[in-house]
Amino acid sequence: MSSICPLLLLLLLLLLPLISAQTFHWGPCPSPQVQPNFRVEKVTRAHTHGHTRRAALVLTRVSQQYLGRWYEIEKLPASFEKGTCIEANYSLRKDGTIQVLNSQFYKEKVRSVEGTAVIRDSREPAKLGVSFSYCESDSSPPVPFRQPSIHGSLSLFFLVTPYAPYWVLTTDYTSLSVVYSCTSFLHLFHIDYAWILSRSPKPSPSTVRYVKQLLVREGIDISRMKATVQNC
């Protein structure tokens, strides 16, 4: 036991810069309920009869459902999101993974980062995992990762983040979505994130109140939640 305490203290010291910019709580992560029967896209089929009894045509229609653009309305503190006009765009790749393109206006320019979302367990499709890829040079801040390259003597370093939880707690697909992410450290403490997303940059105040009440009912502390400026 005496050897564990110094290790925990060291872990806390190493995580202190991260914790100060995030939402820190003692204890393990909460276990909120997620959106039932979550669908990234919706496939509908219709049978159309032809001019003869033998001829029949099956029409398949694929709608975006959860895919497309979402505006960030409010969130718990996130060190990687310091700008304004933050939005997320989701699209389906041919390999079945979901392309995530997040953008924000920060320091007089639009900055974006690309990631990948996957459904880890088909039995719980609302519990996704998201990973982002970055490249960083020795003379410039991080930029979205595209492909390895060397320009002159400039050296590039690549970073791929591990998959982090992306849980859709509730969504109606057409107007609002509530996303929660939590990482536990040895079940002693956890750092969490929460986002209120909308198809519109300015949802109604009643919608925002409803979402916050839902988060509170699920045991999530929203006391540090801040509104995102959407004036671009």
CATH class placement: Mainly Beta
Number of helices: 2
Helix-residue proportion: 10-25%
Beta strands, count: 14
In the CATH scheme, what's the topology name? Lipocalin
Strand order of the largest sheet: 4-5-6-7-8-11-12-13
Structural class of the helices, strands and pairings? mainly beta
Radius of gyration (CA) equals 21 Å
Description of the structure:
- Keywords: Signal.
- Residues 64-136 form the Lipocalin/cytosolic fatty-acid binding domain.
- This protein is mainly beta.
- The protein has one domain (22-134, 154-227): Beta Barrel (Lipocalin).
- The protein has helices spanning 4-20, 205-217; strands at residues 23-26, 42-49, 56-63, 68-75, 84-92, 98-106, 109-119, 127-137, 143-144, 156-160, 164-171, 176-185, 189-198, 226-227.
- The strands form two sheets. The protein has an eight-stranded antiparallel barrel with strand order 4-5-6-7-8-11-12-13. A two-stranded antiparallel sheet has the order 2-3.
- A hairpin with a 7-residue loop joins strand 7 (109-119) and strand 8 (127-137).
- The model is unreliable at 51-62 and 136-157 (pLDDT under 50).
Quick summary of this structure?
This protein is mainly beta.
Pick out its properties.
single chain; 232 residues; mainly beta; Lipocalin; 8-stranded antiparallel barrel; two-stranded antiparallel ribbon; 2 helices; 14 strands; 13% helix; signal; Calycin
